[in-house]
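Bit of a strange request maybe. I'm writing a small parser for structure token strings and I need a real example to test against, not something I typed by hand. Could someone generate the tokens for this chain?
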Amino acid sequence: MDNPMNVLAIVGSVRKGKATDILVDKAIEGVTSGHLNCFVKKVNLIDYRIGYCRNCLTCRDSETKEPVAKCQIRDDMDFLNEDLLKSDSLILGTPVHMGFATAIMMTFLERICWTFAKPEKNILTLSGCPLPRSDKKRKAVIIVTSGIVPPIYRIFCDKATPLIRGTIRDSLNAKTIDSMYAGDIEHRGAEYYFDKAFNLGKKLV
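Reply from user aminoacidic:
Good idea to test on real output. This should exercise your parser:
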């Protein structure tokens, strides 16, 4: 039997059991419905102790050949980094706060940027941009929720999706194969988006 596919689902909502959390669960159901030989781990970032990046640049300047550079901060990112290393596919979910990812998701993204990436060194391009330290390729889907703003206005208020897409591409070598914006949750309810989230998960396999 082939090795199981490792799926890591990361929830950046501070409210467990609410729309973002529920829709990530639906995406997980989609994954497991289409791939029996898979291992899924779901992480609610609110349950973890994740300190702010201190911009010491130790990770950025590391010459390690390992797929992840060591951060100077000792906290629960040590465990999450191990989960990320094992992952083959990712599901990332966050509400939008003022158009952006939540503070806890932003903190997580900042902490993986230079630990999993190294500065590009190419005189023909803009040097210093992040490049993945590892050649391992991953796939990802992104779920963004908004309590008020409907999907028709996504272009004006969803700055979270492009930021997440770019960060996981540059740091984790992850290709975002699709994303969804679940808007106007306060009126439509999360149930309105169940099928879409389920099908999003199926796309990972």
